[in-house]
């Protein structure tokens, strides 16, 4: 159940018998021809689809993250690492204060990974707290499914192109874009990154048939649900 579709009375009643919740982390950044909100859309939806049969609350995705390397692409927004770490910690503290103890973070943006130590510090400071950090798209079964469908897949390629992330009326290239040389991205500023990757796709075809991405989505939802419903001991 999405928090946006719940009231506080219902959450208080829920907390009488369960203390799990899901916090999606997203980003607002370029995704070539797809929505600038891809990471937030996907993290919140995979979380909601996974939690729905369990009745576990899913909070709105944190829509801003760490993406300084995309700041040459208009519409991208980044936070400083210290700011982001403080925001995530404040959210976790709020969840703990209101009764949540087991929190699954569903992360939709690789650039957010440096904040993971915050979850460990938070668990250490709060008795009984548990927090799992889940990069949904590169979890073992999900990534294996990506590789099975097409190993040439990356940021803003087909593996992020779903009906809920594509934009109506926008034509997509039909070619398969070669992988960008990742080793050359590490020492570039934002302008250099844009010059290197062009439209923003890191490599791969821009769209696959929905039957294939539906299969990928099913695996991702099931793998996320297993973490939420698994042994927290």
UniProtKB/TrEMBL annotation:
Listed GO biological process terms: riboflavin biosynthetic process
Gene3D superfamilies (UniProt xref): Creatininase
This protein's record includes keyword Zinc: yes
Cofactor(s), by name: Zn(2+)
Record's keyword terms, sorted: Hydrolase, Metal-binding, Zinc
Claim: Zinc is one of the keywords in the record: yes
PANTHER family associated with the record: 2-AMINO-5-FORMYLAMINO-6-RIBOSYLAMINOPYRIMIDIN-4(3H)-ONE 5'-MONOPHOSPHATE DEFORMYLASE (PTHR35005:SF1), 3-DEHYDRO-SCYLLO-INOSOSE HYDROLASE (PTHR35005)
Family to which the UniProt record says this protein belongs: Belongs to the creatininase superfamily.
Stated name of the protein: Creatininase
Organism: Alloyangia mangrovi
Lineage of origin: Bacteria, Pseudomonadati, Pseudomonadota, Alphaproteobacteria, Rhodobacterales
